[in-house]
Amino acid sequence: MPIRFTRRQLAAVGASALGASATAVPSGARARHGAAAGGEASRVFPAGFLWGTATAAYQIEGAVSEDGRGPSIWDTFTHTPGKIRNNDNGDVADDHYHRYQDDVRSMKELGATAYRFSISWPRIFPRGTGAPNPKGLDFYDRLLDNLLANGVAPFPTLYHWDLPQALQDRGGWETRDTAEAFADYAGYVAEKLSDRARHFFTLNECATFVELGHATGIFAPGLNLPPGRLNQVRHHVLLAHGLAVQAIRARSRAGTKTGPAENISVCVPVIETPEHIAAAELATRELNAPYLTAIMEGHYRESFLAAANADAPRVAAEDMKTISTAVDFVGINVYLPGSYVSASDAVPGFASVPFPAKYPTMNSSWLKIGPEALYWGPRNVAKVWNVSDIYITENGCSATDAPAADGIVYDTDRIMFLRNYLTQLQRATSEGVPVRGYFHWSLMDNFEWADGFGTRFGLLYVDYATQQRTPKLSASFYREVAARNRLV
Ligand code: NOJ
Fold it and tell me: pLDDT for 13-26, tens place per residue?
């Protein structure tokens, strides 16, 4: 499936300059020091910067009953009428399980050098624990080999929300056993795959799957837990992360790296003056208290414990030490400003400024457009917790993608989004914020959880009736950025 435009199509979209100039490979020095003045140097990314794409197992694989895979909570949830828009489900999704070679070829044609995907726990351990299912692992073996043969570095995520249903039946994240089972599974996978995958993300977006799955109930497993039980779920999920970091270290090849992929609440100073910037740093710690702050600092913040009061999590002796086991990098998913923050003399020392009613969004009501989130997100993480390696593990947007009469999806809105966000990311790297790579969400349209297939995030358009993938105009944009390692 060709990803490049024909000459006629290129002319039609006025993209005749594509490919006209040589790829600009920045020198490290230019990338580090060239920010201020504008011009070419202000648009380059550091040498060796990784340009990747991201997906997750349940959103793309399909083949839910094949080769011994067990059911997950998302199979159960999607097959409960009324939970998902249009009652869509991931039974087939993008049929990636059978089409992975085509999809890897698409990555190569995009010029992507890294791929973040998730491993389906119920393919490896169909009942969560017990005997592994060799055929499940075989799939990821083949995928890894194929990626490496195409020059794409694999960055697996161990948990992207598809908890084995058998574990949910035994209490799910409400029990410590699930955290321990996760560490066993993570260690097993790292042992088997770390000869080829050198970076493992533990859990994807704890804040999302905990809150939406266990508080509001709009994601699997669809629970509305009271505060005490909810805090215990939060705690067990953090524990799962820490135990997994330890298990991966113990069982993988030397030099394997691991860390979280969290969707922090990005705190953007409302005006970039020293007092608002300091307030945004404080807010970063406070507003992420139940998740990344606990992982990075090894304790729950006083304000969090005081607010929880009698509902605070029960914490066993070594738990916080385990949770804060040193990580090799921090992955952050950045889509929007979580808060615009201003300084305040009142406790807690900052205020979150309300969003105006007509604040612009993309094609998901939650997806507020705020390019500066991709500057302040990594910048605050690096500054507040002194992190030396950061990955943008997700960034991208939904759009009302539809093929035009000539078959092309002219997603100029996605290009607008990306150009502006990447401008802010470049601002960060040019100032020395240690971002090592960027994974675009997503490689292709896929199952967008409760929103089903109607909400599209891909660089490739997927026709679900035929499974045909067609690169959108944004794929051409992304290819040019990746090839030149600079903004275009
Ligand atoms: C976050 C999640 O990790 C991913 O699964 C989801 O599809 C995107 N954001 C877009 O909502």
Answer: 333 222 222 222 23
